[in-house]
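I would like you to help me understand the sequence and structure tokens below and explain how sequence relates to structure.
___
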Amino acid sequence: MFARSAFRAAQPLKRNLLSRTYATEPTKSGSSNTLLYALGAAGVAGAGYYFFAPSSSGKTADSVAAKAKDAVSGPPKKAFTGGDQGFISLLLKDVQVVNHNTKKFIFHLPEDDMVSGMAVASALLTKYQYEGQKPVLRPYTPTSDEDAKGYIELVVKKYPNGPMSTHLHDMVPGQRLDFKGPLPKYPWTANKHDHIALIAGGTGITPMYQLCRAIFKNPEDKTKVTLVFGNVSEEDILLKHEFAELENTYPNRFRAFYVLDSPPKEWTGGKGFITKDLLKTVLPEPKNENIKVFVCGPPGLYKALSGTKVSPTDQGELSGVLKELGYSKDQVYKF
């Protein structure tokens, strides 16, 4: 009965899906190999933006100047370089409450003009050691942009028996936490796939957001993206504002479907769990060759939809709903 309910909820989604079309041809552009041309291009781009953007912005000149400075001084220094770098202690600058069990943590990088050094997709390993106990290690995917200078952001949900999430939620500005990385996941390049599907539950949304941000900030990347995001309640939907902006800005390339276990009465999206019927309705079909389905969430979500990973370097066999729908092991990636 539950599956039938989810399928009925999916029907208007299917009708809406069928009414949309997508742009698929990537724009081609050349690039200069000399500093002179790079500076010239930055100047032309800045001039074009000056004439077509609102003059009250005040950010145009700063943006062009920053690009010119980067062209002269080279790429910014990276805080995290991987390999045998070891752990780096970062200062907690600010803590912001997101909802009843989730907070955003802003950590200061060692230098103000540093970038994190994160690749897409990758994560950072956090470490904290309680006195007299073994170190607690937990990977997190930052929600801050890879080009952001001087800081990283983590969005962390507190779990009842989660030692690292509990420690983070007890932290206050001025304290420090150890980080190491980046931990490489799925290497992304523009137009690597024609269409990707992101299936997430809870804080499993953060690597999905990292992928989306990289795709849609790159004008050369024309990848289509479908997000299916399951949560307990409406207030548990993390980054909903950011995804709504993407859907409004790129209606022909991005769509998001939300499923709630305990929805409010006025909820018009999916209800219950992420089901086979819903995924069959909204995901790109497995017969399409150049697609990829990404999965990230709690253990129960993996078990039901894709099967679990054997280790960080072994994806394990594909099972569950995605296998039943005809997807191959090569078409699915488990974060």
The first strand starts at residue 88 and ends at 99. Confidence is low (pLDDT under 50) at residues 1-59. The radius of gyration is 21 Å.
